[in-house]
Write a structure and sequence with these properties.
CATH architecture of the largest domain: Beta Barrel
Structural class: mainly beta
Strand order of the largest sheet: 3-4-5-6-9-10-8-7
Distance between the termini: 112 Å
Largest sheet: 8 strands, mixed, barrel
Helix content: 10-25%
Strand content: 25-35%
Number of domains: 2
Radius of gyration: 37 Å
Number of helices: 2
Oligomer: single chain
CATH class of the largest domain: Mainly Beta
Shape: globular
Number of strands: 10
């Protein structure tokens, strides 16, 4: 073999080794960084796998275990839910109907009341009032929750089961009602009959029973003896 051909062969071998990556070099630091993740929708956000893929200096894909470094902006942190009150429960409600609300003045009588509630089983007939002082209204009858409808939809009423001095009050026997009992409510717009569909004790912070409804309901709320944190709710649906 001639020296010229031997030299050419050696040069070809060196080129092959270089192409194969046998030459030692430091990996590109840019390829070792934890990948960045773009959060498009916080509701669909999930943490990525604890793995990192980069290319070695020999062109091979390498998978390494890493700790994902993802920070959720404060703007994506869910806001605390506003407390539910008789005034806000309807604003948070998703049920919508065309006839779910009637203003109180549309159902008012000349004597200042907006309705008359009758419950035959317990021999109760009581006038319903609405003003800025619910305690005063409950002293002379039943009080209408101003955030609820006065005719169409869900009508919310409350009254004492006992007076401040411990005497029996208008809703004293409300706890004796059972499923199927009759409630009658009359306003200047007409008279409706309801059947009791629920009777239970609830938290004094549970105002969900006053939510807007697509059907016509009557919701009665009173206190529970010897338990200031509980309330009795009786609800009827129009028949």
């Amino acid at each position: 073999m001639s020296i010229k051909r031997f030299t050419a062969l050696c040069l070809s071998v060196l080129i092959c080794f270089a192409a194969a990556g046998c030459g030692k070099k430091e990996p590109d630091p840019a390829n070792l960084q934890t990948p960045q993740y773009s959060i498009q929708d916080p509701a669909m956000f999930e943490l990525p796998p604890d793995e990192e893929i980069h290319t070695s200096d020999m062109g091979v894909k390498v998978i390494e275990t890493v700790t994902a470094r993802v920070t959720m902006p404060d703007s994506m942190t869910p806001a605390a839910a506003a407390p539910i009150t008789p005034e806000t429960v309807w604003a948070n409600d998703t049920v919508v109907s065309w006839n779910a609300f009637t203003m109180p003045e549309m159902a008012a009588f000349d004597n200042g009341s907006i309705g008359v509630l009758s419950i035959p089983k317990i021999g109760l007939t009581v006038r319903v009032y609405e003003s800025d002082d619910a305690m005063e209204d409950m002293a002379r009858g039943a009080a209408h929750f101003k955030s609820t409808s006065s005719w169409d939809g869900n009508i919310g009423l409350s009254s004492h089961n006992r007076t401040p001095d411990g005497q029996a009050a208008y809703f004293r026997d409300l706890h004796t009602l059972s499923i199927g009992d009759t409630l009658i409510y009359r306003t200047a717009l007409g008279e409706r009959e309801y059947r009791v569909t629920a009777s239970k004790t609830i938290s004094d912070e549970d105002w969900s029973w006053l939510s807007r409804t697509a059907d016509n309901r009557l919701t009665l709320i009173t206190c529970v003896d010897n338990n200031l944190s509980r309330r009795l709710v009786v609800q009827g649906v129009q028949v």
